[in-house]
Write a structure and sequence with these properties.
177 residues; alpha/beta; four-stranded mixed β-sheet; 11 strands
């Protein structure tokens, strides 16, 4: 019988300078930068305690305490650790990987529209997906996949129905909203 084993790293490269740093160290000894990584155990404990939310299916992100509150996004980097992929804000729309790949050109066009987002009300449908981070602790984050597209707040408000439709159809195989 074949033995089952999981290869979990004890270290990973610093995102800023590439120096190999142990996972239990929070700042790089070479550049002093924050390593922004979570080990497998810490990540899933955070998920279990609602300090991390699964955002891989995408949706409208509601921010904690206001639209200027940066929300960290983490993705699986391999070998048992998750790394900081970036920050987003409440009011932005995070599309699933499937929707992002299928509609990349349209999403780029939508996201190129800039302006001041006025109000945060949206007409939700039966297929709306909302990622509410308002009750997440200050340093909580979102679990994402590579190639998920983020649409700015202004474009999200203007094209919310289209974003919902694109995301729902990609996730649920043709759901109409």
């Amino acid at each position: 019988m074949q033995e089952f084993a999981i290869d979990i790293a004890a270290e990973s490269p610093c995102n800023e300078c590439g120096t190999i740093v142990p996972l239990d160290v929070s700042s790089c000894p070479s550049c002093q930068g924050n390593t922004h990584r979570l080990g497998f155990d810490t990540f899933f404990a955070d998920l279990d305690h609602m300090r991390m939310m699964d955002a891989r299916h995408g949706g409208l992100v509601l921010g904690r305490g206001g639209p200027e509150d940066d929300i960290p996004m983490y993705l699986y980097a391999g070998k048992g650790f998750f790394e900081l992929a970036g920050l987003m804000q409440g009011g932005e729309y995070l599309l699933s990987r499937a929707a992002s790949i299928s509609h990349g050109a349209l999403l780029e066009e939508i996201n190129s529209e800039k302006g001041e987002a006025k109000d945060e009300s949206h007409a939700f449908s039966a297929f709306s997906s909302v990622i509410n981070t308002n009750f997440m602790p200050e340093f909580g984050g979102l679990w994402i996949r590579r190639q998920q597209f983020i649409v700015n707040r202004f474009a999200t408000q203007k094209h919310f129905a289209t974003l919902e439709k694109i995301n729902a159809e990609a996730n649920w195989g043709g759901a109409k909203g």
